[in-house]
Amino acid sequence: MDGENRGEVSINDALLLAEEAGLDLVEISPNANPPVAKILDLGKLKYANQKKAAEARKNQKVIEIKEIKMRPNIDTHDYETKMKAVRRFFEEGDKVKLTLRFRGREMAHMELGMQLLNKVREEVAPIAKVEAEPKLEGRQMMMVLAPR
């Protein structure tokens, strides 16, 4: 066994060659014409593929949706703090769901909530895009932002 290409070989000859070498005959591309096979250790091949898959899984980033809750009459400092968190989430590659909760008489002033969400949208425009426009569900207004 020196790794050179044997060309077209009958299945029986290939199996005999593999047996002599104490290895397995592994079909590499069954749809080719003729099918391509290699003589190698199947256990080692499976192990290498498993390792490659584990490495790929380790390197992938799971995108989470982080939720930020606000009230329509939020104070400036509280707003700044929430915005800092929003920016941090975008840097980590996560999506952000902004939830505005209306209580009591605040329901009469929905436009304040809309103004607040538009302000957030303009502030993060360079780093994020709106994935779900602001919509009202009961006493809450929601908007989803995703990093660019």
What is the fold's blueprint, element by element?
Blueprint lengths: L10 H11 L2 E6 L6 E5 L1 H18 L5 E6 L5 H16 L3 E7 L8 H15 L3 E10 L2 E8 L1
Parallel strand pairs: 3-4
Antiparallel strand pairs: 1-2, 4-6, 5-6
Summarize the helix and strand pattern as letters.
HEEHEHEHEE
Strand order of the largest sheet: 3-4-6-5
- Number of beta-strand segments: 6
Give helix % range.
40-55%
Terminal Cα span: 53 Å
Shape verdict = rod-shaped
What does this protein structure show overall?
The chain is α+β, with helices and mostly antiparallel strands and 148 residues long. It contains 4 helices and 6 strands; from the N terminus they run H-E-E-H-E-H-E-H-E-E. It has helices spanning 11-21, 42-59, 76-91, 110-124, and strands at residues 24-29, 36-40, 65-70, 95-101, 128-137, 140-147. The strands form 2 sheets. The chain has a 4-stranded mixed β-sheet, covered by helices on one side. It is rod-shaped, with a radius of gyration of 30 Å.
What's this entry about, in short?
By secondary structure, the chain is an alpha+beta fold. The chain has four helices and six strands; from the N terminus they run αββαβαβαββ.
Which keywords apply here?
two-stranded antiparallel sheet; single chain; 148 residues; 4 helices
